[in-house]
């Protein structure tokens, strides 16, 4: 039990005698007052290969009955799970748990970030009060924030517990798609409805067919392809993938023959469906990975208004047409479309964030998965108009030395390293190393976790000495070791 926790509990119970020790208590906890959320959290690393059996604490963490934002999938015969812990039914902000289980359900690998101390009874009471007043706060927010009134979709609001100084403050999170579907916004409100933060966090089956470009449009001919496992409602909708359009002119065919000219707006739906459907089938065939949800794609976001939107959020991809200044025909660029789909895999396997170092890891892995599938290291090669490509995995940047803090710049170092592994080890092995390492990362992962995750994945795959030396050589050359 930590010192801050003891002090908090004593004061929260209102012991009169403790008031005389106010100054002493302040001195004792002063080192904790200026800590960041990460410093108030404790990281847990456990691997059955190197450590003894589960402690009581670890067993409690991995068997907790209440899990918020829970996701799981299977990789190489193992079950990968991650979730956000809760106390009293309320998620703890900045906390997360990642578990890999064997075929019998036994934990083999655990990474977690948990609070140093538990919310007090008073903290939970205030959270319950906010939960009971949630609709009142939402009604107030509806009147205060015009973008909520025009939002395309609003997800269920949730009460979270955020560490503030020596207590936990209940807050209300609201997430929504903006009116033109070009962004995902999260509003964090206090118990009184005051804005704390606003941030972007950008059947029956049948067969069908369609006309598509098999690769970059400028280097491909229109080709007829077959679509399997369609739901059968005349749209591009299957158990794993659904494509829609923001405009009224939709891709619809009662015979499921989606043959459109590139000058027709519905063509973009067909093209996006093809790229993502084939990349998901490739991930399943080559690496045994499937998504545990139906992936949704919407093209032509923004309607008739030019939009450069291209993002993924919680099972949803949004693609604009481009403004013909910076981007063009975004749904027809295979690297952009597959990159966004790859974020779904990153979310399921690792739960990496959208910003900071974890965000760069997220983007780097998404770039690499797209590049590996398409055999093309140049992202947005077709749609980007201000250069031959937006970014390339063929680079000589070095970790540490060349980090600049830019989300996508630093991501190219991650993606470039993985691309070098592909060149050294081949597509199949590099893909397994990348996906295996993803399963070792979590919501709080940073650059320091990248190389250990790669090495751990290498050990799990049982690479021979030559392959291991090549892998270590790449990591050293790129500045990770």
Task: Describe the fold and architecture.
By secondary structure, the protein is of the alpha+beta class. It folds into five domains: 1-34, no CATH class; 37-117, Nuclear Transport Factor 2, Chain: A, CATH 3.10.450; 121-200, Nuclear Transport Factor 2, Chain: A, CATH 3.10.450; 204-343, Elastase, domain 1 (Roll); 350-481, Neutral Protease, domain 2, CATH 1.10.390.10. Helices cover 35% and strands 24% of the residues. A hairpin with a 2-residue loop joins strand 8 and strand 9 (167-177). The longest helix has 21 residues, at 267-287. The radius of gyration is 24 Å and the shape is globular. The two termini are 35 Å apart.
Q: What is the CATH top level name of the largest domain?
A: Alpha Beta
User: Which band does the percent of strand residues land in?
Assistant: 15-25%
Mean pLDDT: 89
> Architecture of the largest domain, according to CATH?
Roll
Describe the largest sheet: 6 strands, antiparallel
Supply Rg.
24 Å
Task: State the helix count.
Answer: 13
Detail the poorly predicted runs.
1-38
| Morphology call | globular
Kindly report how far apart the N and C termini lie.
35 Å
The amount of helix comes to 25-40%
Overall number of structural domains: 5
- Output the structural class: alpha+beta
Number of strands: 20
> What name does CATH use for the topology of the largest domain?
Elastase, domain 1
């Amino acid at each position: 039990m930590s010192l801050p926790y003891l002090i908090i509990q004593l004061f929260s119970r209102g012991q009169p005698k403790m008031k005389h020790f106010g100054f002493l208590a302040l001195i004792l906890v002063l080192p904790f007052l200026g800590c960041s959320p990460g410093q108030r959290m404790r990281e847990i690393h456990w691997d059955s290969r190197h450590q003894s059996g589960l402690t009581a604490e670890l067993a409690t963490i991995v068997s907790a009955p209440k899990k918020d934002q829970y996701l799981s999938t299977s990789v190489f015969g193992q079950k990968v799970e991650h979730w956000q812990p809760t106390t009293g039914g309320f998620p703890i902000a900045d906390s997360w748990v990642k578990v890999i289980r064997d075929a019998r359900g036994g934990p083999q690998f655990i990474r977690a970030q948990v609070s140093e101390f538990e919310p007090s009874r008073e903290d939970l009471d205030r959270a319950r009060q906010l939960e009971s007043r949630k609709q009142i706060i939402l009604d107030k927010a509806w009147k205060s924030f015009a973008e909520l009134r025009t939002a395309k979709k609003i997800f269920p609001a949730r009460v979270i517990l955020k560490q503030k100084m020596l207590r936990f403050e209940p807050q209300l999170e609201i997430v929504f798609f903006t009116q033109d579907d070009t962004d995902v916004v999260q509003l964090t409100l206090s118990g009184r409805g005051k804005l704390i933060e606003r941030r972007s966090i950008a059947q029956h089956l049948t067969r069908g067919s369609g006309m598509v470009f098999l690769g970059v449009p400028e280097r491909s001919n229109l080709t007829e392809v077959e679509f399997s496992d369609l739901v059968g409602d005349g749209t591009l909708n299957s158990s794993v993938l659904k494509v829609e359009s923001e405009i009224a002119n939709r891709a619809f065919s009662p015979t499921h023959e989606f043959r459109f000219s590139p000058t027709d707006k519905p063509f973009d739906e067909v093209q996006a469906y093809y790229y993502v459907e084939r990349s998901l089938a490739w991930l399943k065939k080559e690496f045994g990975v499937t998504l545990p949800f139906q992936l949704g794609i919407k093209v032509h976001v923004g309607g008739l208004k030019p939009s450069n939107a291209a993002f993924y959020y919680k099972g949803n991809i949004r693609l604009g047409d481009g403004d013909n200044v910076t981007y063009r025909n975004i749904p027809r660029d295979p690297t952009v479309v597959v990159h966004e789909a790859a974020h779904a895999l990153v979310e399921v396997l690792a739960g990496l964030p959208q910003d900071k170092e974890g965000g760069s890891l997220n983007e780097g892995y998404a770039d690499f998965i797209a590049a590996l599938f398409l055999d093309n290291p140049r992202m947005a090669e077709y749609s980007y108009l201000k250069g031959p490509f937006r970014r390339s995995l063929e680079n000589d940047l070095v970790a540490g030395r060349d980090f600049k803090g830019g989300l996508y710049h630093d991501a190219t170092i991650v993606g470039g390293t993985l691309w070098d592994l592909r060149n050294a080890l081949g597509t199949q092995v590099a893909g397994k190393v990348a996906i295996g390492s993803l399963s070792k990362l979590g919501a709080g992962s940073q650059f320091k976790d990248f190389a250990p995750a790669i090495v751990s994945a290498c050990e799990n795959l049982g690479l021979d000495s030559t392959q291991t030396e090549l892998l270590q050589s790449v990591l050293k050359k790129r500045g990770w070791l």
